[in-house]
Amino acid sequence: MALPSENVAHRPGKVSLKSITRKNKHELKRQERKNQIQQLRKLKREEATERKRSLGGSGVPPFLTAIIPLHAKEDPAKFLELVKSCDEDAVITESSQGYCHISLPRFKKRYSFVIPRPGDVYATLDAAKVADSAVLLYSLDGGYDDVGDTMLSILFAQGLPSAIHVVQGLEALPQKQRAEARKQVTKALESRFPGEKLRAVDKKEDGLLLLRQIADQKRRPISYRDSRPHMLAESVEFCPHEGQNLVGTLKVSGYIRGKPLSVNSLIHIPGHGDFQMTQIDAPATPMASF
After folding, report:
1. Most exposed residue of 52, 148, 153, 210, measured as fewest CB within 10 angstroms of its CB?
2. Structure pTM?
3. Which own/partner pairs from 145-148 qualify as long-range (CB within 8 Å, at least 24 positions apart)?
4. What is the reported pLDDT for 56?
5. Which is higher by pLDDT, 9 or 261?
């Protein structure tokens, strides 16, 4: 009986055509999934870049920031004055509604700041509703008081935009007390915002760093706002119809954010209701361009 030689190559038997086809299909599907993942990643990067370019530059709405004090001792107007003085080349303008606009040639960015009435819940909610960022002012006296704690709870319920946590007054303390004071404020901060950092703003350099952070920070999505066009009124003018004092045309100017606005859609004015638009104009921007 002859034994098979070890040098003889053994050919496999017939392979089913169906199994080959299935293998090719499997390989094709895996490659398709890989390409699809790459395309989705590229699309997300492009969307993130587009969102970043849609704010702050020339020809687009400025970064809108709401300054919200969380303690009765904190003065948001004083904080804004420091930010306005952080760069000698900054162009400062104010709207008729009291909003502060800062054009910063150093960064080629534009910023708008709104200060709601301290302690006014509805004014604070309205400001946070349209703001891209919120600067939360903490106090060296415990971080925030009872009113500030309640305000944070309400803001969380509505939807808080990207927040920057600021404390002032550390530079005025003796060197030995600064670390302990910062530790106490950080403790209050982490009870509401675990992992967030506290920023001290006492010098002009701190103000510049704050403006850079506002421009570069990641925007927190708020679905109910991002899916609709919205605007903070820079100027408001009522033109009554002839012979009628209570009926007329309301002219509202401001930067449109979110989705595009159609003249055929209804607009909602808080506290007044829904109205049909007559026309949309493109007035000159009140801020300096680069």
Report:
1. 153
2. 0.79
3. 145/70, 145/71, 145/72, 147/72, 147/119, 148/69, 148/70, 148/71
4. 63
5. 261
